[in-house]
Amino acid sequence: MPDRDIKSPIWHPEPETVEDVFDHTYKEKAGPKPPSVIVWRNVFLMSFLHVGALYGLFLFPSASVLTWIWFFACLLFSALGITAGAHRLWSHRSYKASLPLRIFLAFANSMAFQNDIYEWSRDHRVHHKYSETDADPHNAVRGFFFSHIGWLLVRKHPDVIEKGRKLELSDLKADKVVMFQRRFYKSSVLLMCFSVPTLVPWLVWGESLWVAYFVPALLRYAIVLNATWLVNSAAHMWGNRPYDGSINPRENRFVAFSAIGEGFHNYHHTFPFDYATSEFGCKLNLTTCFIDFMCFLGLAREPKRVSREAVLARAQRTGDGSHRSG
């Protein structure tokens, strides 16, 4: 397998970020795989959510214009809690955020309801370190359904649990915002994911409580979930691999659009510390634009970026030939 190092000081991982680098020494255990154990509670809850979301889609035309605006505002806010928050800030430490911005992103993350920041970041680091192996929480080798939603419907593979326990997570434990959210996560989800999206339209401009629950709450929640899951499934299966042809993650522009910038996945797995997750900056990457704006306001700082020379060298050495330098 090709060497993953680029001889550039910008690319070499810093000591506190080595947990994000793929571990070539990991070997899957020989013998039969452990049987999948279905978590029936999750199956029921996910089924209820998606049936409710479909009903919300049916109700969408009957919602007021203000409710439509609120729906999209909540969708963007909760998506940023994953992309700019749990993913780029806390999982990869690709930039630094002030306390007000971290609090903002923690509230947004609770609205997204995809596990607390600590657990999300831990599992994502395991995903990068052991991608497409038994230790990957949503191993795409097991198929689209498993990597999209199936991994949430069964017990984790024992290797996922074992490797997750061995990760260095002191940075997350030292962040008071992360640990506060983890301590009060259930309450914050009830407030941010369901109560606020439902009650604001009902109380402020008189939207039907029924419509407010099924549209800005359930439909919005299901859309953000599936947009995130597409990064684990579609972006690991369809698209080109211009930066590293030896790994599964792909450049998928549909996913980049739906997940506000998270679909440039071959680049991201090749250069996981780059805050932009793409060599194209803000193009099709609303999350990068948000981080840039936060830096302009002084609420974020020190965004990490891979040099153009390192990108071109990497593409030339290990890409699939689809990269264009123009």
From TrEMBL:
InterPro entries found in the cross-reference section:
Acyl-CoA_DS (IPR015876), FA_desaturase_dom (IPR005804), FADS-1_CS (IPR001522)
Q: Which keywords describe this protein according to UniProt?
A: Endoplasmic reticulum, Fatty acid biosynthesis, Fatty acid metabolism, Iron, Lipid biosynthesis, Lipid metabolism, Membrane, Metal-binding, Oxidoreductase, Transmembrane, Transmembrane helix
Reactions catalysed, semicolon-separated, are:
octadecanoyl-CoA + 2 Fe(II)-[cytochrome b5] + O2 + 2 H(+) = (9Z)-octadecenoyl-CoA + 2 Fe(III)-[cytochrome b5] + 2 H2O
Localization per record: Endoplasmic reticulum membrane
Cofactors: Fe(2+)
The answer to keyword Endoplasmic reticulum applying to this record is yes
Q: Which GO terms describe its cellular component?
A: endoplasmic reticulum membrane
Q: What class of enzyme is it?
A: oxidoreductase
On the tree of life, the source organism's domain of life is: Eukaryota
Q: TM spans, by residue?
A: 39-60, 66-86, 184-204, 210-231
Can you tell me which family this protein belongs to?
Answer: Belongs to the fatty acid desaturase type 1 family.
What's in the domain note? The histidine box domains are involved in binding the catalytic metal ions.
What is the name of this protein?
Answer: stearoyl-CoA 9-desaturase
Q: What is the species of this protein?
A: Sinocyclocheilus rhinocerous
Q: What is the lineage of its organism?
A: Eukaryota, Metazoa, Chordata, Craniata, Vertebrata
